[in-house]
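Quick one:
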Amino acid sequence: MFTGKTILVTGGTGSIGSEIVRQLLKHNPKVVRIFSRGEEKQFYMQQELKNYENIRFLIGDVRDYKRVEYACKDADIIFHAAAMKHVPASEYNPMEAVKTNVLGTQNVIEAAIHNNVEKLVAISTDKVVHPQNTMGATKLLSEKLVVAANQYKGKTRTIFSCVRFGNVMGSSGSVIPLFLNQLKHNIDITLTDKNMTRFMMSIPQAAKLVLAAAAHSVYGETYVLKMPSIKISTLAESLRNHYNATNTNPYTGKIIEVGIRQGEKLYEELMTHEEIQRAYENEDMYVIPPTDHAEDPIYKKYEHVSITSYSSDDTNFMSEKEFVDTLKDIDILEKGE
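Output:
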């Protein structure tokens, strides 16, 4: 469905946004517009994709409605990946998170309706389920805005849907690059809590789910990838053991607990109990239909979910080997090591 289409990716230079762009380019779209506020990231991405003639780089902020509306002109599909995603930064600057994650999302929704865009897929997070921090609360509001847009869009053709992620391995500002840097400089690995668990997915997996959501959304569904979780202590020990096995100068620092940061939880959830009751599944993902379409015949191609909860402390845990092998597969660790 992407061939010959005009596609806008907000936050298009970020970890997820840039991978969405790379995967879209395989489908020969008419043009992909990369919308972000960071000119340095745009410069490096321009160098990476210099052989493509069907990409455009637009400097802008989702907080600026007029700029967003201009970026959406004649667009067929929007992938909305722009967000404030870091928990501590959002806790310290809550109104900034509201401006980007809530008001910015509403700007994208209104611009999509104004331009009669075919589909909009918004990127969300596991932190929207029973949110304990500002980032999760603002992303929950953004989800509510996106799904509700299906009800008040009038005769506009736009279908609004969401994709909910766990932690994305190797994304900017995430824990894996932090631990690798601490290993490299032989300083203590700062573990928040050894009992903490997190869902894990790769950047390509995340982007693939986003594209699937655009292809399959009909009524404003929320899509959740099936993914394993990992104990944060296993994650740290795996990286340390791999580093020591592949470097002549072994790591001599310690793994220390520094305590949970403000707004963090010991474990994350990807669906509420109420969502599970109406959700469907296939081999790769869960589909949460909007309440007023929960029994629609279109979902007969899926199975009703077989789980009663979806929590990072109550699912399949990655072993040390599985985790390291996954990092090698996605080129975070060298495959030959």
